[in-house]
Specification:
GO terms for molecular function: DNA binding. With about 425 residues, the protein is an alpha+beta fold. It has 12 helices and 16 strands. The structure holds zinc ion (ZN). Zinc ion binds next to loops.
Length: about 425
């Protein structure tokens, strides 16, 4: 069993002035407490929540007698987290001040300080008694409610002063049983596509990540340049433009869609997903072409790792296991002959040095990932024992293995899972 945790953010309805004022007061008191506690903890080098609470509980409680006493607990927890991260930064020489600044505050709530009130409102304990707050449920929220996720007793609230709303951070958990895999689903992630091998058939999802990530980077640079020149480095109008760009980028976020298709396929077949264990070195063409070191690093992070991470996250949700294998030579060796494959220039099609057959680079990578998983020479890969997969039966020599079914983004972006038959894909492709 694994426990997965998700935070879901909902917004309250616009609150009446009077009710909202209560929360402004509450936040000010809470902030005061956290400030005092952090100051004290840093000054006395207290890294333990229990110790901090033991030393300051009565003082805080007497300072704010109207406040429900559990706010002292949560403020101590909050302060403790801030203290620890500040001391860590200080140790690394990265802290600019002697004491941490308590700037952004969200009020931490525990089971004594709030409770659900039906499905669309909560009650919050304040220094002026319980206040009921209605919120606006959205699709994602209902998804968690309807799919058996449980609300935990901790929550946080933030104040949106301009709109007189509370931003409520609800935390859901779910226990998920991991099933034993019946086979493997290797997935190769590279600069312009994601390829997966399902029962000997390779599917290539075109992503155009390079274009997407680079395009975004240059647009961002463009905005920075334009606004910095006219309004200075810290203008509000620039922040707004950046936010808009970010939102648009999120919408275009293809990672989750790909992850969904892959994980659903693995889930239905009860397969484990096999991924390359990505090292720190960005060893690929796209990265090599970019000269700016930092940018290169960022793009690497953004495109490859994050697709993997999206797959991991989704896999966890569905109880699908993910295993990692060593990426060494995955696209360089022929999986049949164990001989080097020669690629001419920048071609993605190569010729096996021994057998002379042609291979598509991404398909080779998948086959090798599969073989590595089956042989168990990835560090986390299980042994073959007990799995009903027969290595001998894998039809490596058949023609179908050498190429993949390419699926353009315009097509798969609308899918929720892999269509039932190959025909559906081919047909769809022809229609375009
Ligand atoms: Zn070969």
């Amino acid at each position: 069993m694994t426990r997965i945790v998700r935070t879901v953010i909902v917004k309250s309805v616009k609150l009446p002035r009077k009710a909202f004022r209560v929360f402004i007061e509450l936040k000010d008191i809470y902030r005061n407490m956290v400030e005092q506690l952090v100051l004290y903890a840093v000054r006395n080098n207290i890294k333990s929540f229990t110790k901090l609470k033991a030393l300051k509980y009565h003082e805080m409680k007497s300072l704010y007698p109207q406040l429900p006493s559990h706010y002292v607990y949560t403020a101590c927890q909050d302060a403790n987290t801030r203290t620890k991260s500040f001391l860590r930064l200080k140790k690394l020489g990265l802290a600019k001040r002697d004491y941490p600044e308590v700037r952004k505050v969200s009020i931490w709530l525990d089971d004594h300080l709030w409770k659900p009130n039906g499905y669309t409102s909560i009650k919050i304990a304040t220094h002026r008694g319980w206040v009921t707050v209605e919120f606006e449920p959205h699709k994602q929220y209902w998804k968690y409610i309807n799919r058996g996720w449980k609300l935990v007793s901790e929550a946080k609230i933030k104040l949106d002063k301009r709109n007189r709303q509370l931003i409520i951070y609800l935390i859901f958990v779910k226990e998920i049983e991991k099933c034993r895999p019946r086979g493997y689903l290797p997935v190769d992630v590279n600069e312009n596509n994601v390829t997966m091998l399902v029962d000997n058939i390779a599917y290539t999802f075109e992503t155009g990540t390079e274009k997407l990530v680079l395009g975004y980077h240059y647009r961002r640079k463009g905005i920075q340049k334009k606004y910095d020149k006219h309004y200075g480095k810290k203008s509000r109008i620039k922040r707004k433009a950046m936010r808009k760009l970010k939102e648009r980028k999120k919408k275009l976020d293809i990672r989750w869609k790909i992850a969904n298709i892959i994980v659903k396929t693995a889930y239905e077949k009860q397969y484990s997903i096999v991924l390359e264990r990505l090292g720190k070195k960005p060893a690929n063409n796209m990265i090599a072409r970019i000269k700016d070191k930092q940018l290169r690093h960022r793009i690497f992070q953004a495109s490859f790792r994050s697709i993997q991470r999206a797959i991991e996250e989704k896999a966890k949700e569905h109880g699908v296991t993910v295993i990692y294998v060593n990426p060494k030579n995955t696209s360089r060796l022929c999986p049949v002959h164990d001989a080097p494959i020669n690629y001419n220039d920048n071609s993605r099609i190569g010729k096996c040095g021994k057998g002379g057959e042609l291979w598509h680079r991404d398909v080779v990578a998948c086959w090798n990932l599969l073989l590595k998983a089956l042989r168990g020479d990835g560090s986390y890969a299980p042994n073959l024992v007990g799995l009903d997969v027969d290595v001998g039966l894998v039809p490596l020599a058949s023609n179908a293995t050498h190429d993949s079914i390419g699926i353009p983004k315009s097509l798969w972006a609308r899918w929720k899972s892999l269509p039932q038959t190959q025909k559906a894909i081919v047909l769809n492709k022809m229609k375009r």
